[in-house]
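Human: If only I could read backbone structure tokens as easily as an amino acid sequence. Underneath my words sits a plain record pairing an amino acid chain with its backbone structure tokens. Take your time, and here it is.
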Amino acid sequence: MQDRISQTAPRATSEADSTGAKRQEGLISETLEWCCELFGTSRARMIRPLEAGRWVVYTRQREALMTHAADYAEIAMAYTVGLSRQPLAVTKPRVSHADGTNLRPIALTGYLGIPVVCQDRLVGVVELSGEIRPDMDMALHNAVPRLQSIAERLTFDPALARPVAISRDSIIELSSSIWTSGEIVLTEDDMVLLATIDGPMALADAARTAELPDERAAEIAASLASRGLIAVQPL
């Protein structure tokens, strides 16, 4: 039985990871399509900072979403927009490496970068290029609320998150519950475990206080995390 569990668990985790990633990409693709329609352009992409300092570029082309690792110049441009926390519009922008080499255009006519921010955290930058519609300020006014909502989903929606393995040593805490999955129905055991969480704490400590076996507490924690009610720090 132990061998069977060790063989099947990684596959289940991989499938869950893939599902979350596909949902994220679907949301990003829909967002870029909507931005193109709103601003009257045909080219849009999002640059996102990920773990370990990596940045990824998502580009919507012919109803498909393409991805590639951002290079230095792309990161620098997105970082400039993100640092200011304000949209940046530039005519015929050029970018280069820090030493001035590899100068090249990033848009033939115009460039608009819009920071996508959640609770002062830069979630990404939407970049539009080409002929931007004349009433750009009005389009920005309409875009900001939706982009803020998308930033919250990319940050907090459990359906888009990568699953985190839970053990007795996992650190759990109450989440902001900005995004929850489905109707919230809590069992008695759910309530007992939630009531014991006072700031970040080890699952084993919460289980002991709630007088629940570690295995049962881990099951409950996994269910609560999948609904966005608690956060679990990666081991």
In short: The longest strand covers residues 110-118. The longest helix spans residues 2-39. Residues 1-13 have pLDDT under 50 and may be disordered.
